[in-house]
Amino acid sequence: MYLDDRQRELEEVMETQGLWPADSPWVRRAILDTVPRHQFAPDQLWTWNGHGAYVPVDRDRDQDAWADLVYAGPQDSAIIQILDGLPSSSLSCVAVVADMLDSLILEPGQRILEVGTGVGWNAGLLASRAGAGLVTSVEVDPDLAAAAGQRLAAAGLDVAVHAGDGNTGWPAGAPYDGVIATYAVDEIPWAWIEQTRPGGRLVIPWGRLGHVALTVADDGKSATGWVQGLGMFMPSRGIEQGREHHAIRGDGPPDRTVPAAGGLRALTDANLLFALRVSHPDIRIATEETKEGLTIRLHDGVSSWATAVIDQTGTTAAYEGGPRQLLAEADAGRRHWEERGSPELWDFGMTVTPDGQSVWCGAADAGPYMP
């Protein structure tokens, strides 16, 4: 019963926040009734202890804490695996899963390729809509793939789960009517488009900050589409994630105190953050609002960092370290965004060809969005 209560609470929050997709009512039914989230959550999950480490939460030891992680909230994922001290796989947050399934425009009878099986929950949702034997899922971790296959079979869902490199797709099952990825890539693998029929649709997390929906051209030589929403995903396995802000910052004094740019508070705008992801892809930005004020942290994953603190009086203190002037770079990106009319993230799109990809704003023929 405790799981039913938490599921009901999540349903109500999703409803209150308008997160259930109106154009795809099947998604709500599948998440709540056909393929409930808790049936695919492993008995051991992981959580941040606030003191520098992730710690396990076991279902048999603390059922309530485990359930709190499974049904934490619409925007919260549940970590299922830790490698080298960092999360490497998760049970994706409900809001983004629902949004991406809606973006796929999935119809019964379609053949779907999923890359990144994880626990198998998303594959189960796909199969509940597409039908038996029509979903192929690829997972790079053989142990995760085997466990997901067992969960799907136990739930009576016919999904072909394969252990392999998702970036190469699964040619044996091609052509597919649609492809959906559950991990983020910076460069869309051409194999995914090549294995999708003309007119088919691909929904892909891009750059760990948003997801795009692409449609394959009639000649199969390109795929074009729009950004659909925000959502942070773990990167493709094996991709170097770089150093975090605290590791680059260290414990010593900053290299320099810098004048604070006037537009720093704009960095809380999700639309600007996405635009900066396009124009300055190696700068990572995090903001934290507390009763003391707003803290903004920037770093490049290598050797440069910046921190700005805006207190309740509006006074700003800004510090930097490393060879780059990240605050100045971010401010230049902000000015470029404002000069372009402060476009929203939905104004951005992407075109992919065998030769590469281009992110544009407003129209596909507008050229790359560059400062």
Automatic annotation (TrEMBL):
<keyword id="KW-0808">Transferase</keyword>
<comment type="similarity">
    <text>Belongs to the methyltransferase superfamily. L-isoaspartyl/D-aspartyl protein methyltransferase family.</text>
</comment>
<keyword id="KW-0963">Cytoplasm</keyword>
<keyword id="KW-0949">S-adenosyl-L-methionine</keyword>
<keyword id="KW-0489">Methyltransferase</keyword>
<dbReference type="InterPro" id="IPR029063">
    <property type="entry name" value="SAM-dependent_MTases_sf"/>
</dbReference>
<dbReference type="Pfam" id="PF01135">
    <property type="entry name" value="PCMT"/>
</dbReference>
<dbReference type="InterPro" id="IPR000682">
    <property type="entry name" value="PCMT"/>
</dbReference>
<protein>
    <recommendedName>
        <fullName>Protein-L-isoaspartate O-methyltransferase</fullName>
        <ecNumber>2.1.1.77</ecNumber>
    </recommendedName>
</protein>
